[in-house]
Amino acid sequence: MKRFFALLIISMMVLGLAIQFSAAERTKVRFLAPRYHMGVTEKYWKSMEEQFESENPNIDLVVEMADWGNLHTKITTYLAGGNPPVLANIANVWLPEYVAEGQAEPLSRYLTEEFKNKFIPSLLHPTTAEALGQGEPGEIYGLPIAVSARAMYYNKTIFDKAGISRPPVTWPELKEVAKTIKEKVPGAQPFGIPMTTWEGEQYFAYFLWSWGGKFFNDEGKFVINSPEGVEALQFMVDLVEEGLTNPAPSSINRDEMQRVFAQGRIGMFITGPWEIGIIEKENPDLNYGIAEIPSFRKKITGAVTDSLIMFKGGKNKEAAWKFVKFMYQKEHRLQFDLNEDMLPELKAVVEPFKEKRPELKTFLDLLPYGKFLPLNPKWEEITSEIVRQVQLALLGKKSAKEALEDCAEKVNEDILTG
Amino acid sequence: MQLHRTKLAYLFILPSFFLLTAIIFYPILRVFYLSFFETTAYGTAKNFIGLPNYLKLFNSSIFWMVLKNSVYWTVGVVGFTILVSLPLAVALNERFKGRKFARGILMLPWATSLMITGLLWRWILNSQYGMLNHLLLQLHVIEQPIYWLARSSTSFPAMIGVGVIVSIPFTTTVFLAGLQAIPGYLYEAAKVDGARGWDRFRYIALPNLKTVFTIAVLLNVIYVFNSFPIIWSITQGGPANTTDTVITYLYKVAFEYSDFGRGAALAIVMFVILLGFSLLYIRFSYKEELE
Prior knowledge:
The complex is a heterodimer of chains A (418) and B (291).
Chain A: H1 2-24, E1 27-34, H2 40-55, E2 59-66, H3 68-80, E3 87-91, H4 95-100, H5 113-116, H6 121-124, H7 129-132, E4 143-149, E5 151-155, H8 156-162, H9 171-184, E6 189-191, H10 200-210, H11 227-241, H12 254-262, E7 266-271, H13 275-282, E8 288-291, E9 301-310, H14 317-327, H15 330-340, H16 347-356, H17 361-366, E10 370-371, H18 379-394, H19 400-415
Helix pairs in contact in A: 2-15, 8-9, 10-11, 12-13, 15-16, 18-19
Chain B: H1 2-34, E1 37-39, E2 45-48, H2 52-58, H3 61-93, H4 99-111, H5 114-125, H6 131-138, H7 152-180, H8 184-192, H9 197-208, H10 210-225, H11 229-234, H12 246-256, H13 260-290
Antiparallel strand pairs in B: 1-2
């Protein structure tokens, strides 16, 4: 018996070695991909992997899935350990950090003119050295993947009960609408504000930009405490204090609020196209509409591109680029955009996309008014300071002016200099 | 012979010594070293700068708030855990029907991963669709939903409660072991002298539990001060850092803000605090051994 086990173990070890050797013949390409729609993204990349590997049998594509919430940390850990994946789908706001630290691979040596021409030109801009304020002039460090804009969802049932016929166009009008809802539809939360470190800065940005404020001025100084900024935050504070929002903005994040809206308990709420899919899944009977984000001094939307980048420390870049070319084909990207409710980044996808998704028209129309969050290597830390100070103001612990003054001081004198 | 045995002992210790050097001593020294450097975003030392990482910490109001939170959290969790565990251990030490079952149930929270427990409680405490608010509303204890996680004044006590629940099994087990180590003849003698339940507890159990008690407190202080999963999974330190403890703040500084130098300095501060408690622990457990 003993001998039998010994034999078994030895044969297993031999087999293991054999498998390792046969795997070593294939070039391994690691791709770190975050989930957009739970369950959908995995399936999409799985099928891409199968198709790609059947076309390129000598490449072993390894797709690692991650959650957006811990993606940045995961990459930091990989980079600190010197073992990053060669390809990663990241939020573009992190790119300056990777370029500044010399971790992002410049892509112009791989990019042919023909390939470059497939993209909507303005969407290639956010990954250039010029936009990033980092890297070698003229270089490009990433490709757009998952483009989105934000719009305001409103609950038509609540609007009907309150006797309101159309969504508000300006912020002061929104406040009036919210007051009417509060009065006539008890139990409904007129306007939703999620204010946590998960995109709270984006929500504040809708207000800041509408009022004509900026995060940074042209000299690179952080100017959130401008009169426009203070006015915008004061407007948010007033909404909260007059009970026109969800009662505790700092206790709910965007993703949780998306579900609460789907349950029909919020009058108006700003988020991206994917909310349609969430409503479809959670409460398909919800009667809702999609409108532009209210304007004040300016008409704006938050535009976001996520980027596909290559890490310098990643292995097998040539093989990885093969996959990049494979991936950016019209039908593959159309499928991705339809799956994830994202907007097209390839010229050829725009028309078929419009045909299949007429309900996303508002988002496509708003895209030209899109404003991007600033690109700065310290953005993660700056973000948490913005959210912190806005929370303090919304909780009534500081005035809007104090909060933004403190925020600007901390960012200019501590985060940006240290 | 004696010499030979000592040599042999060293030989046996050697592998673990190397292991400890590799996975404990080296990282500690490395963190100590890093805390005096300006670092790249991925934790390699760039320039030697000396003390600024520490000075920056001591000058920031968040650091002091976070330290205070840590104390609040540790005292709260350890204090209430002891208050609950001691009577529980005494009860479980008595013979009654279903004792084995009761002891089994007690172990349950211990068998669940802290992250899972934390996430469950995050759902339970959710103000919009959480179980707790639903229950309280149904029972008409409250009229309006409570926003548990919106303010530190409600979220901290709630998290301390969760901390207590998960700390009870270990602490009760330690007390139970202590109670069972008390020789039966002491009780018998007391019985002869006419001691009743409370007296038996007060004059026999309690004095004999003194060392166990100190050790349970110290071990809990070390575990709880260090505990990351509960706070991270429930509030992530928010809103506005008001529920951050030193360890969650440390994680943010190093891995979210990519400031490994300041993170290392923070880790050293924590290390010194915990080292103090560890030394106390060693002293007490050795004292017992010497006796």
